[in-house]
Amino acid sequence: MTEHPVNRRTFLAGTAAAASAFSALPTADARPARQAGDFRSRWDLVPDRVWPGPEYWSNPLQDWRVRGGRLECTRPAPGRSLHVLTRELADRPGDLRMGVKLSALDGGPLAEATGSAGFSVGVRGPLGDYRNNLVHGSGLDAGLRADGTLFLGSGQGETTAPIDLGGIETLELRLVADPEGDSYRLALSAVDPDDDRVLGTVEKPGVPAARLVGNLALASNPGPARRQQDGPAPGPWAFTDWTIAGSKVDAHDDRTFGPILFAQYTTHEGTLKLTAQMPPLGEDDEPTVRLLVDRGGGWARVAESPIHPRARTAHFRVEDWDRSKETPYRLSYTLRKADGSSAEDTFDGLIRRDPADAEVLTVADISCNAHYAFPNTAAVVSMARLDPELLAFTGDQYYESTGGFGVERTDLEAALLDVLRKWYQHGWTWRELLRDRPSVSIPDDHDVYHGNLWGEGGKRAPGRDAVAATKGGYTMMAAFVNVVHRTQTWHHPDSPAAPGLQGITGYYGPLTYGGVSFAILADRQYKPGPDGKAPPTTSGRADHVVDPDFDPATADRPGLDLLGDPQLRFLEAWADDWRGARMKAVISQTIFTAMATHHGQPDNRLVADYDTNAWPQAARDAAVRALRRGFAFHLAGDQHLPAVVQYGIDEHRDGPVAFASPAINNLYPRWFRPDRPGDNRPSGSPGELGDFLDSFGHPLTVLSCANPELERRPGVLEAETDKSAGFGVVRFNTRDRTITVESWPLLADPTEPGTQFPGWPVTVSQLDCGGVRAADFRLPELVIRGCDSPVVQVFDEASGETVSTLRLPSPRWRPFAFAAGPHTIRVSDPESGRIEERTGVAATEGNEEELEIIL
């Protein structure tokens, strides 16, 4: 576990209002503690499996298992721990009594084992939350070294005593903490469990009371987690009969996590799709999960689903779903015990009615969570206050560093357990919001253990390092990638994507909700790697250009994809389909421009970055034209630099508007620090606003931007705020046809006025997303009879291009065009199927004609 100084200045500590907001969430974590009764582990009742049970969290998941009635840490490595979730040391005087039986994993005399094992007590992270303690905490270690040493503490503060292990194969460690004035006296004894004979004791007086507040954990080879260490090699250990008692121990029986961990769902065109996320269970565990709903007559089972053996998910699909009603749902799972008994676990939530008739749909754009502030209570509280109807997780739901211990890359099962542990942190963070509203989750590069991803349609990369990744393809196993896709995207509406190379699944597709038609894109999966396809660089990296004389035209090479042809065709067809929708938006991983100028450090300037979706240029332009065709707003994440931009294709402002959301916890800050102020910016606005060319030559208009500070304050939340970490929502006003983007720093209270990033909120019109301000030509004003909200399509007869497709708010509108000459106008009513078309309609400057069309 990582050492951190304790910082009690948490977001919630300072405001009663925030605490009240969080307590309003349907979570059990806010219940008051009670003084604990005695705790005893019952792994003798747990079937063989990796997951130790709902009362525990194991670090890391893949290194622990229950087998034969005992808990085993199978990897001989330092810093492994298992926390009990339902007990903690309270910040009050009292005593602690704790015991556990130890043996070497493979049996034999303890004197022939290696490494150390025991307890870690008072485990605390910088934020004080018990979940933050799990992954960012450190505590006071107490245990046995196999060389015959009992120890209390570590480093220079360690106290030790020798014992004679003889031929003992199992011993019991007993830890006692008693108050002694303002401090505590700790005593650790080793006892032969066969005859209760004390083999040795070590005592440590004068332990500050503050060291004995926080989580309680078992430790295998306690100390900082790292792959290499000096001195004797660590060893694998087994534990049984963990007992906890004492007046200093609080009980939180509501803090269990699992077996049903969290759920995600969407409703679309009469179909409910829901995923229940489960832990890694065993062969003797119940293999299915049940879905029940209450339509007013009590709980009724509607489906039962098997648990996927790799993703540990249960999936439910319910046709003919009535989207006009709110419907409570319940997931139910039977947790079997080894003695034949069982317990029923339930997870309740709400399928919201589709707010198709609402005036405003609020969508949360959430991205890039390095989980430094896990469980990110500040962000969750703020998002609960904003109460969005739809959650859009736009990538990097976790990083390779999430939860510590690095990543597993070679063994498939270990890699799956490793990525699930990180994914569980994401779900644990957001589950109280996920349980009662639809959500979209799209994996980005770090979700599949890439620093940057150029997927090339599922190709296998020629290695596992960053150099191999720039050649294109996936560095991880196809089965691993498919599990990531399944856990994050199965609950989306059905995708038209066919499996790609290596059988890697696709997930792009449509979602219509709240009167807004969304296109969910996979904008990394089909993109080519730059190595061998873009000009060589002088930076030592194929993706980073540092040459100040770089000519972006040299990188604009023919035949390179961005979205891939099938996905681009889907996007174009989606832009023309307005059934059930009044507005359109695209959800993808990153914006289609290269905005950031400085990466990682404020003085680290990159001339160009092939990781951005500004490259390949021609393919990027085709994608942006498809968005413009449907007047689609773009929600994305990835760049760790909050911004609202308007794309340009042939000139400034002739493309859609996009929002790059702030990182929730910012792993890698970026800045936009242009060499000159932007053109055509509002009077008095900062120099980073206005018209620019991005690093690949595309017109770029910056409407708002929140650069990180150049220096950061101490404290996890304060430092993240200074890195421009935060959260944002997009409000689609389907009556006025406007889009308002709101964005706040991490520690801001979104209910207070004036707390957003400077330059926010930003409001644009639906027509802005079609490039109306850059269009010089107009068609006759249409007067449409027979339909109050028709769909109008405009085709350029010279180029054959679809210029635009728009559902009108009223039956009068003057279409625009980007070129003079004859155009075709098609007017339709999607609900009735009626269509009328006019050809040879002239687009001219200052057109004042009128054209009547009767459906």
UniProtKB/TrEMBL annotation:
Domain of life: Bacteria
InterPro entries, per database record: Metallo-depent_PP-like, PhoD-like_MPP, PhoD-like_sf, TAT_signal
Database matches in Pfam families: PhoD
Record-annotated PhoD-like phosphatase metallophosphatase domain positions: 366-653
Gene3D superfamilies: PhoD-like phosphatase
Protein name: PhoD-like phosphatase
Taxonomic lineage: Bacteria, Pseudomonadati, Planctomycetota, Planctomycetia, Isosphaerales
